[in-house]
Design brief:
Elements (H helix, E strand, L loop, with lengths): L1 H42 L7 H5 L10 H31 L4 H26 L1 H16 L7 H35 L37 H46 L1 H4 L2 H8 L4 E2 L4 E2 L18 H15 L7 H51 L4 H40 L8 H15 L5 E2 L3 E2 L2 H9 L1 H20 L1
Antiparallel strand pairs: 1-2, 3-4
GO molecular function: odorant binding; olfactory receptor activity
InterPro entries: 7tm6_olfct_rcpt (IPR004117)
Main location: membrane
Amino acid sequence: MSVLTGFAPHFNRNKMIGSKKEDSQVSERKDRLTNEEQFCVGDVKIMTVSIALNIFGLLPPAKSSSLMRLIYKAFTIFIHVLYILTVLAELAAIAVHWGDIAVVANIMGAMAGLVASMCTSLHFLRNIKKFMSLIDMLKSEFIAKLQPKYMKYIFNAEREVIFCGLLLFPLAATIAFIWSVVPFLNTNPLTNFKNEKNVTEESSVDKLVFVVWLPFEFEKSPRYEIIIFLEIMVISFALLMICAVDIVFVCLMSHAAAQFRILCAKLNDMQENVSETVLHRRRCMPPLYTGTFMRQGPVPLNVPPSTHSWSADTENSGRFVVEMECLKNQNPEEDPLLQYLVECIRHHQAVLAFLDQLNEVVGAVSFLKLLNFPFLICMTAFQVTQTAESEQQLLRFLAMFSGGVYLVSCYAWFGQHVIDESEEVTAAFYGTDWYNQVPGFRRLLPVAIMRATKPAKVKAGVYFDMSFVTLAAVSGLLCITVQLYDTLCALVARHSGK
């Protein structure tokens, strides 16, 4: 007994030295992780696609001068005045050519896309502060508090949106180019189907990008060059501006899906992410010494002290009683895994609040685009079938049709991505080691699972959400489009019979 008692202080000194070394290593590891996190957060760049807003005149750069901001403001006013004048001229052209189905369908197909673009850009300019607050929230509330090992999900979200933009902007530029060069390729005026009757009343409407009515003769120079230049500017900026705003919408949706993915990863890495020092204090209590052996590890609370083998040594028995009292009096709210679960639930609530604000901003204009999509398909399909002999007209409307389909498909793709990732949170909550945790952990987890069961959605108005189901439903409206198409063909046949 005296030999063991003599070795005990020496063993305690070794354990204290080892414990200090471990604590210093843990603190060094923490400092290194903090430095890496600050480095990554400081260098990471998100919403890189928002530079398109600067390029196409919707938003001045962050550090621009007052003169530059004034130029941007004057340009946006000028281009939207052109939008409004073009739409009014198209409405006048519809009134002038009412009864000529080919010309009216031509005008309405182009006007549908122009109105959608104008409403999108005006909606963005009106809610620009809300957009900026969403981007700031993404940077300050999510990215700034993110651990370095989860930055890969942010980079993946950025890469997906950049890939989408690399396809979207060339497509928009191609459509603008096709619509701009078609007037120079046409040598014949627009004709009325089989009877080849000129419906333009000596006005070469095919020589313009948009079929419009003008109160003066525009065929003479330099009026024609000015009108064609302004129309090319309208079609180009209408397509590029709507793409710039939509790519920002899509980027916000992609980052929301990435936050759900990060939340799932954090829940899966719960044991790893909880501080090693806190876990050491909770699970690795100091060893208990007896007269014949040394007991390692924590003492279970559900076993009475009388069942433990411990000697009558006063110092060791006193330490055992103190440790038991500490375990009994431990506050469950201070459990590190419970606190980590609370942080994950707050993260989930923050992402849901972010999506609510996003729906507030993009809901109305997205609903307008979904309603415009079947009408665009109908007008485009009608023009393609009725002007099949004209390669220029066929190419122009096929390009517009492909652009509309790709844009709506991007919305549906990223919206479905948000739904899928939010549904994975339920499995991540349940996958935690909840059956080995404190009662507070087990009481809180079902509430989190119940809320995560309802998937998060990006809304398009009240009735639709951005998903593949909605895309299929909108495509299902093709039956209405077919009926409208049959009605137009019947009107054409009746008009030709006369």
